[in-house]
Design brief:
The chain is 34% helix and 24% strand. It has 208 residues and is of the alpha/beta class. The chain has one domain: Vaccinia Virus protein VP39 (Rossmann fold, 3-Layer(aba) Sandwich), CATH 3.40.50. A 7-stranded mixed β-sheet has the order 3-2-1-4-5-7-6, sandwiched between helices.
Length: 208
């Protein structure tokens, strides 16, 4: 039987005084994740290193405003970012009922007053106020993410999409969408150092 990965040494440093919330989140996700379809059956032995630490690398790039997490699922990265950055308002956008319900319940269990869960598809969503940034992890290609999320951002808002090893190929394939939606400074950057076992490729772009 697979068990939850032992917490890496770097976790406490990266979450600081809120490490207790990260530990509770990891325990809750380990208990409920596979049963509810939040994570795959093989993820427990790498839950910290491959998922939670991977996501918290994004925390320093957030502005102290309103950030939408598209297809939030298990809260990766949205819930992790809400734990690490209590000064940021995270709107977790998730279309599936059981996942959105779990996210709401987990935010309540953790006492995260900076989390709002919205059950919707991003491309069909209208928010009462525009977002300062949007994030996504393992959701879809840039060619679909860009047109599906650009309308949610304020002018000058930023896209922060966590991508895999083919990020540069996706960037090239999305050239038409980048031009159509007036994105500036679109590029792929690498996050991570010795504090995280896996580097994170991140697509960054600003809405003109």
């Amino acid at each position: 039987m697979l068990t939850l990965e032992v917490e890496p040494d770097s976790v406490a440093e990266m979450f600081g005084s809120r490490i207790h919330l990260a530990r509770t989140y990891a325990t809750d996700l380990a208990a409920d994740g596979e049963r509810l379809g939040l994570i795959g059956p093989l993820e427990l032995p790498r839950l910290w290193s491959r998922h939670i630490l991977n996501c918290v690398l994004l925390a320093p790039l957030l502005v102290a405003g309103r950030v939408g997490d598209i297809g939030s699922g298990a809260g990766l990265p949205g819930m992790v970012l809400a734990i690490a950055r209590p000064d940021v308002r995270l709107i977790l956008i998730e279309p599936m009922e059981r996942r959105s319900r779990w996210l709401s319940d987990e935010a309540t269990r953790l006492g995260l007053s900076n989390v709002e869960v919205v059950r919707a598809r991003a491309e069909q969503l209208t928010l009462p106020a525009p977002l300062d940034q949007v994030t996504a992890r393992a959701v879809s290609s840039l060619s679909r993410l860009i047109p599906g999320t650009a309308h949610l951002l304020a002018p000058g808002g930023e896209m922060l999409f966590m991508k895999g090893s083919r990020a540069d190929e996706e960037l090239a394939a999305a050239a038409a969408e980048i031009k159509k939606f007036g994105l500036s400074n679109a590029r792929v950057v690498l996050l991570g150092d010795e504090s995280a076992p896996e580097a994170t490729r991140l697509f960054r772009a600003t809405v003109a």
